[in-house]
Each structure stands twice: as C-alpha cells, then as structure tokens.
Amino acid sequence: VDLDTARQKLEEFIPHVKNISDSSIRKMAGRDLARFKEFKKQGIAVRFGRFTQKENDQIRKNIEEFLSITGIDSAEKLLFTSRYPEDKETIHSLKAEHSFCEKISEGIPRPWRLVYYRARKMFDPNNYKGRYTKEEKEKLKKYHTMHGNDWKKISELMSRSNLSVAMKFSEIKSAINYGPWTNEEIQKLKHAVKEAMKRKLEKENAGCLSSLEQSNEDVWVDRETLCQQLPWSEIETKVGTRYWRQCKQKWNSILTKKMSKGQQFIHKDIKALQVKIALIKRLYEMKVEDASEVNWEEISHALGGVPRTYVQAKLYKLKVSCVPFWQKKTFSEIMDFIVEYKLPEFEKKL
C-alpha cells in the first residue's frame, strides 16, 4: 500500500494520523491496519491515553507466552536486547520467526508501537531503583558533560531509564528556587506557555495561522487545549529558576484559579468537604472499571470548571489518605471502599 493510501485507511481509526511521520505510517500499515479492522468488526474502537489494568495484564500475558514459545529467559532480554550483545542476533531471529510485533499487541486495541513502549516501561528494572544518591547525581553531571543530551548512552552508564536520567538532570543542572513564586517567575512561566501554545497552534493549523508567530495579539484557546501536555523541559529552560515539575504544578494552579473565576477549592471545612463528596459521587455514578475510562472533563465541569489535573490530584490524595493498600486494588475496588467507608463519614462531618 502506498503512503497516501495507508494514511487514508488509518485515518478511519486514528483521527490525528496527519501528525504521524511517514515512517511510522508505513510501519502501522503493516503491523496495525489488519488488527484495527478486526477490532472494528468486534465493535471495539482503537484506544489512546492511559493503559487500563486489563491491558497491562494482557501485556504481561503476551510477554510470558512469547518467552515460553521462544525460550528467551527474561523480559529484559526480549525488550532491551542491546543490553545483551552476545545474545542479540539470536533474539532478533526469534522475534522475526515468531512474529513479535503481532504477539505483543494481541488482544490490545492500540497501535503496536504504543504497546511496545508500555511493555518496556513495565519490564525495565531500571525504572524501579528509588531515589538518586549523591554519588549518582555527581555521575549524572559528569556523564552529561561528556555525552550531552545522549540520554540513551547516559542511561546505559547509569543503569537507569532514559526518562529517569533526563528528568533528574533537569532538576539538578542549575540552582533551583524552592520558595514561593515571585511575580517575575510567574510572568516568565506565562510567557513561556504562551509561546509554546502559539507554536502548537501554528503547527496544527498551518494554513490559517501562518502569521501567528509574528503576532503580538493573544490567541483564544479552548480549555481542553490549555490543559493538554506542554513541552515542560523547554518551558523550564525559559523560566530558568524552576525545574519542569514545579512549572507544571504552578501552571495547573493558575488554570484552576482562572477557570473557577477565582474560587479557591483547596481550603478547609465546608467547601473542601463538598468538593470531596461531589467528586466521590460523580466517579461512583460513572461505574467505570479503570481510571482511564473516566470522563474527567465532565467531572471538572461539575466541580466548577477546574482543570482535569486538579480533579485527578484530588482523587489521588483521597485514595492515598483513605484506602489501605490502595496500590493493590483496582479502580472500582478503590471507589467501592471510599463509597462504603469514607463517604458516610464525610457526609456526617458536613
């Protein structure tokens, strides 16, 4: 199938296909198109976003079965073959012989590459090494001086994941301010977000926004776009005195205040209890099995138009503080516990 035809066929399943590179389109046409059509026959739509517990379990099952079929002795060898140069050729042959791409994504209505990235995150032992020691931080600075932003190389030297070393370096590369934000820092943050948003709109709407970069006027952006992922490492650099996570948290707090017309939801007593109760009831009424199935926009609107990140943070604090062993429970089990044991307590207190 030629590139244009492949893109056209995939558009039925992936609305944002126009933003995907040509090389990825070719791979998806070969590895995903037939799968997507089969899922459509079953009435199942292609999914994006956060993986559900059911999908994570299916990935584990697929990996275990592939290891059993091929005799490869660990998921790390299968998914991080470059770490085992002596076995590399054999593992690649086994992957090709037993259709690794198809097998790993079996039963999961997502693009193969997203399933592969998720599996790598789940099975990489370097993702679960805890806090960086002082010695590791010094090594990270040293390796960055030697190799720049080659995070793959640095991750191999540090035995940490690519994302881990990149994010940690962003935190320690310069003096970071941990106190209250100054007006100057807030203005820098707003300006950096505005510029990032302009470029995003320019890219997505090249025809009608070709002069946007030269414009000094503000651009109207809908709430959903404002709450979407932004290039935080770039924004961090422009702010200069805060690392990316601080920038993200501050921006979300600004959105919360603006979108709720100045109302302060995060305070004590009556309002805080009302918000908790409303959040619990809305989530429970949805009867979803996994957090990825929650309509966060609906809930954020019900709580006064606050950003979805505020709602998600509220739920996280609720389950951590109220649900014992919440890490071992499914989303529906967590909600059942909160409704049975905590909701009556909050309503009585109110």
TrEMBL record:
InterPro entries: Homeodomain-like_sf, Myb_dom, SANT/Myb, TTF1-like. One of its GO terms (biological process) is termination of RNA polymerase I transcription. The gene is Ttf1. Residues 124-161 form the HTH myb-type domain. PROSITE patterns: HTH_MYB, MYB_LIKE. Pfam families: Myb_DNA-bind_6 (PF13921). Residues 124-172, 173-255 form the Myb-like domain. It comes from the Eukaryota. The lineage of its organism: Eukaryota, Metazoa, Chordata, Craniata, Vertebrata. It comes from Calyptomena viridis. This is TTF1 factor.
